[in-house]
Amino acid sequence: MHEVVSPARPERLLPARREVQDDVDRSLGNGRHGGETAAAAAARPRVSGVFWKIWLPIPILFILFDCTFNLYFWRIPKLSGPGADWGYQFLIDAHRLDVPKAPGSVRIVAFGSSVSAAFDPYQVEGLLRGALPGTPVEVHRLMLPGIHPSEYRLLWEADAKRAQPDIAVVLFNLLDFLSSGNDHEMNPTLHAALPPWRTLSERHAALPVSDQLEWTLDGVSNLYRYRKVIRSSLQDHLKAGLRWLTARSAPGGYGVYADGYTKQRFGVRLDSAPAVDFEYYVHPEWIRQRGEVGLTFSVGPTVVAHAVETQPGWKVLHLSLPRRAQRVLHVTADSVWNPRAGGLGDDVRLLGLQLRQPVPADALNGHAPPYHYPPFDDGALHEFLRMGGGTADEFARKWHEVLESNTAFGKRFRFYRDAKLRVRTETFRPTDEYAEMARLVEQLSRLGTRVILVNTPESPWILNDYQDSPYYRDYLAFFRQLAQKPGVQFVDLRSALPPEDFNDWHHPSYVGEIKLGPTFAGFLRDAVARVTPSRVATQ
Fold it and tell me: pTM of this prediction?
């Protein structure tokens, strides 16, 4: 007996039968779907509407972000220090050169591989401002480990006219010339730093197909070209956010040493008075190393004073405090100084002000400030003082211990040594990166830029093994010959530092870097005086 389905009753079909019926209805245009009624058709989502409203805006946004990348990305602050990502820092420093010079100012740009870290632009600028009070000077530095003169030449071909350097300080080391930019695996940062089409045109014959494709994509898309920088920026802000969420005050807070000296940033507890006379001492060596000292005083989010000190000695600053303020005065200095760099013993600390009254012990141990300050232990050395703070036999022992270690740094340490010692048996030929250096000097000179070539310091413990070789003598002669051209100068600093001021064979420690600041400022002061006044006045 068959069941008769009445038209008045709702249709009941098994799922499989319902799917089959749906297919039939779609094929025949039955009223169950598209052909049933106009109201039903209007109620269904239209595929074309979804495309226009959802999918099409996505590529439009990507194109918009891509085309406007250079207008917004470089305004995003980098929250981590330079050492967190040297490539990211290099690109930020390069884009700062896009800001036009102030009328009448002298722009100095120092650049090189990792050895250019010995040139602290903030230190040199402060020293020049102190030495040349009537001349506005701005100092920049571009530093990237592993970069070669050939790559800087490509960079400056695209950017020199826009950056307008009056003085270019080219810092280099022998190791920079022992491999060619065309022979080594290119630093990934250079894909973002160098002009893509110019680089591809010049180097395509030496590049594998995969690299040629990558450089092509770099030239087409900013988002692709700067993808590693975008990732670094996101990581930078994510880490900063996590630090903010998990911030804890460091043991022994306030950034003050037991002898009354302070870190670059520190805090002092205040009493309930509406005003305070803050007394502090600026050491003469700080002024000698930095030229001037800028200090910012704040209570909570409110800056209550700013002072620029150009003379050493005791200072008294009368501070009026905001009502209902936090009872911690925060002081930030724009620089630090180092006693050992000034010949004042073996104290390797990076110091700031000295307080008339050291912070009481209970403030150091029992009352933590609201912010996290750096470590304050007298024995806590800077992380880049690789061999520690010892001298003489103690330093030599640590040096050889690191040299013979099986660590990644120990292996690189030995690689540097072996690469340099090989020049004792080689013949100097002014080709490859030497020829690129000559092209770079010629290029900058054509723009009217004064060029100072700086052979950076070497540890005597390796320099003495090869500086008397024919290769190294010809190496020095090559740069002296370049300096025969008008507007070009050669400065040889190979013997400027003792062994204990190095982290390896040719990278000075921060103590050595501070020592070099007055030397750089000395020859730059003379170079600034030689810059043509009419050229400066017209820019």
Answer: 0.83
